[in-house]
Structures are given as C-alpha cells and as structure tokens.
Specification:
The complex is a heterotrimer of chains A (247), B (66) and C (232). Chain B has 66 residues and is mainly α. Chain B contains two helices and no strands. Helices cover 71% and strands 0% of the residues of chain B. In chain C, α7 crosses α8. The longest helix of chain C is centred in the C-terminal third of the chain and has 31 residues. Chain C is elongated. The chains are: A mainly alpha (247), B mainly alpha (66), C mainly alpha (232).
Amino acid sequence: MWSFFHKLGSPPWLYRIAGTILRWLLPVTVLALCVGLAWGLLYTDPDFRQGNSYRIIYIHVPAAVVALAGYYVMAIAGAVSLIWKMKMADVALKCCAPVGAALTFIALVTGSIWGKPTWGTWWVWDARITSMLILLFLYLGVVALYEAYDNKEAAGKACAVLSLVGMVNIPIIYKSVDWWYTLHQPASIKFSGSSSIDPSMLYPLLLSIAAFYALFTCCLLLNMRAEILEREAKTGWVRKLALGDGG
Amino acid sequence: MYFDSLGAALAMDGHGVYVWSAYAISLVVVVLILLVPRRRQRRFLRQLAGEQKRQQQGPTTGLEGS
Amino acid sequence: MSAAAQSPGAARFCLVLLRRQLTLAVRRPIEIGNPLLFFAMVVALFPLGLGPAPDQLAGFAPGILWIIALLSNLLTSDTVFRSDFEDGSLEQLLLAPQPLFLSVLAYIGAHWLLTGLLLALVSPLFALMLNLPTPALGTLVASLLLGTAVLSLVGGIGAALTVGLKRGGVLITLLILPFYMPVLIFGSAAVRNAALGIPATPYLAIIGAMLCLAVALAPLAIAAGLRISVDA
C-alpha cells in the first residue's frame, strides 16, 4: 500500500500511468458525454413549466457539481502536498485550477442562458449563480497566485494554503449567499424537478454528471502529463522521450 | 425521439436559440480544455527534441555547450 | 544584549510586538489617516453617482457604508507584513522561539486597532451624511467593530501569501474578496434590520461566530503563508 504512494511521487511512473488511464478514459468520456447529452437533448419530454429550455440542465448541473467537487479535489491535493510534501500533489493542485475554472465558467454561462427564457433576464443574482460566481473567483485566485510566484515549489505551497482556506470558506460562503438570497426574495423560484424529478429526466442527468466527472479527470491527467514533462525537462527520461517522440 | 423533425429539434418551440447556444458554447469550452494540454505537451516535446538535436550537432561557433 | 537574559514568554512577547507595531504606525500618522480619508471621499462618491435623494440614500446606506469599510480595509491589508519583510525582521520572527500563532495575532491585532477600530468609531459621522436612521448607528458601530476584526484576520492570510511577491498589491484583492463576502452579507443585514427597528443581535452573533472561527484558524494559515513567503 505504501509502495503505491511512494510510486505516486515518482514523475515518470505517474506520467506513464496517467497515459494508460487516458487511453481508455478519453473514449469513455466522449462516449458518455455524447450519449448523456443527446439523450437529454432529444429523447426526453420537455418540462411541464419550463418547456424545452430546461434541457440546459444536462450541462448546467453536471458542470456545477463537478466544478464544486473539483475545488475539494484541489484542496485535498493541497493538504497532501503540505502534509506529506509530495511534489506530484503540487502538480495535481496546479492542474485542477484551470479545469475547475473552465467548468465553473460553463455552469455560469449555461445558467445565465437558462435564466433568460425562464425569468426574462440574462443575469439573476440568485443564490446558486452568485455562489458559482464566487467559486469562479476562488479558482481564478489560485491560478493568479500560482503565476505570481517565480519559485514554482513555493507557488505550489502557497496555492495549497489558499485552496485549504477556500475549502473551509466555501460552506460559509454558500450558506451566507443562500441566506442572503432568501432575505431579499422570499418567493424564490425553484427549478422544477429539483425534488420530484421524473426518472426519465433523472437517468440522462446522472449519466451526464458521471460523464463530466470523467471529463474533469481526463483534463486533469492531460494537464498533469504536460506539467510533469515541463518540470522534469532536465531529466534523462524526458529527454529520451522527446527524441523518441518529437523527432 | 421527442421531436418530429430536425426543424422541430432546432426550434424547440422558440427555446431552441437558448438551448443550442448553451450547448454550443459548452462544447467549445470542453473541446478547448481537452486539446490545450495536448498541444502544450506536443509543443514542449518538439521544442526539447529540437534543442537536443542542436546540441548533438556539436558546438560550431565555439560557444560553451553542455 | 545580555546572553543570560531569558527569552520572554509568549504573552509578554505578543504585547511587546503589539506595542512595537502601534508605535511604528503612530510615527506615520498619514498612513493611519489614509483609510479614513478614503472612507470619507468614497462616501461622497455614492450620492454623486446615485443621486442625492435622501430616502434612496437612506435605503442603500447600510450597504454603502459596509462596502466602503470593506474596501478601506482591503487598501491597508497589504501593508501588515510588508515593511517587516523588507527589512528582514519577519525572518527573525520566524526564527524566534515564541509560537508564531500568537505573534501573528499581535500583528493583526495592531492592524485592527489602527484601521477597523478607527473606521468603526468614525462611521456614525458618515452614516449621518447618508441619512442612516439614528437607531441603526449603534448597530453600525458594533457590526463594524466585529466585522473589521474578521476582515483584518482574513486579509492577513492574503497578505502573508503575497508579501514576498514584487507585484502582490492587486493580487491580494483578488484572493481575499471572496472571503470578505459573508462578512459583508451579515454586516449590512445587521445594520439594515436595525434601521427598520428589528433587533439585529442574531446577525451580530453570526459575525461574532465568524470572528471566533477566524481567530482560531486564520493565524495558522497566516503562519504557513509567512513561512512560504520568507523561504521562497
């Protein structure tokens, strides 16, 4: 068991195993995404109250769920990097941030587009969208902090501390914004199907959520492979790889 | 399929613009986050290979080489 | 320096640090005055931008006052550790035997005494300029006293993480504004309710709870951040 963790700390091993995982995970992800989204888009009945615009849920909810989960993955990688001083955990942390930010962006844009036919405006400061916006700022903060440091090792540690602080704060922020919203809009509009969602709508949604989790993992591994190569540029195995590959 | 024809699927009773634009933007972002790291990796490997080839060709100008 | 002198205990060391920070700050009164001046000028910006109608201003006054207090705090948050970082005393502090947790609290405490406390005491004046109803003034001061303490602690985290960076100034804003938001939400809600005559104690209690959490956890993050910045 411990040898597994020891191997995780070795860059060439991690690079290879990430490649192996990606070889089957990428096609699975693409397939799951296509099936889940096509199913939700074309093969389900429209919502009783919202009509066909509710179909955006099949992208909005998975993106939002995975964006939030991704922050926790990043924070846990940060904790691992600080406690066990694993450099590869640093790499994972650094690679989570842009992917998470992209998914949060998708959640925000789809949420906003969904809002237009539902509530008539492009942007509504409701609890969920406001919390997503703050999550985007948290992600961008990590990206900005990493870029600001010249010493990449210190950058990783600083981002680990920042993402841990963010992890503690996310429940506080969520609850505060939620409470703030109910204070100002007592008659809140609930997305239909949140409590009693029809199974025919639930299954494609679950598939899409699973597909987005897989997508996050793929992007994380792809980014980690690129980052590992750049960090280990001076080592023998990378130089050999370049000659064998990029020639 | 819920929709009777391709036209109906595109229009979606007036909501088609919203649904399809949301899906299109998301698709673009998803493709980007999948392709950008790949391109970064390939470009880096190509650069490193080029560097090494130049070093192997030996110092032609007498500058310090490693 | 007597070699036989014992190093002071943690509490005494903190008080010494606190007094040192306050003395250093008092020697440059302009720097204490800056955030207050900022507060005053931005208070004028809002009627200029929104129109001088008294009841409109009164309606927005709790939020406006809280936002400006937050921004003033943001302005000074960068300076908590910077001067000590630049002359090397921060490095000495990290090597000191006294626990960094408490030393950090001394720095933040001094920062709060010089910014948050003064802001809270001065705020009724500007509140009157924005037509905030008089019953809310007490709650305004109380919410600012508690809230700016949280802001100082959270700001200290951002300061610790960016103190070693050359262009850290704007970055710290990006980092800590999301963490400022819950304080803003409950602080302005407290004042708004007080203006309506509803008791605001629950909101003050929530800010108090945030303060307890911040006092317990923020120094850990600040200490970690300082070590990272100094070692970088």
